[in-house]
Task: structure prediction
Amino acid sequence: AALADAAPELTFLYCGARIAAVRSVCEQFLSAVTAANLPAQVVSLGAGFDTRSIRYQREGLRFFEVDLPDTIAAKTVVQTRYKDEVNPDVRLPERVGFDLNDCEHTSLLAHLESEHGLRRDVPTLFISEAVLFYVNPRAIQNLFLSSAHVPCAQN
Result:
């Protein structure tokens, strides 16, 4: 009973720690590519309604937000409205409707490269925050194996 009573508080602490860790990794990556004057890419898997692509935008940085097609459609409406009504100069991310479970038989990276302009020769950060438990193990394995061939930034 004591653990069940503490569950909401533990969930809150876990979420805060996860957000802080992802923020720290993003900032380290962006600092490294900026210091080296390199173009860079961020691929956010299961992006949902995360706003990193707008908060971290800068020259030479491209964001690819990958999520289920319905989620991407809804986010497109929100981001377009933000651009139209709040900040017409904002650079919106490349939004990609894709079910990560399809990685079992389809290469997400090949799709991003051929359809959305991902470059395999540019330092790339992959963010996966609270999505992989919805994806089957074979798809996760294929996704990780293919992403290992994309360079990352070094400090």
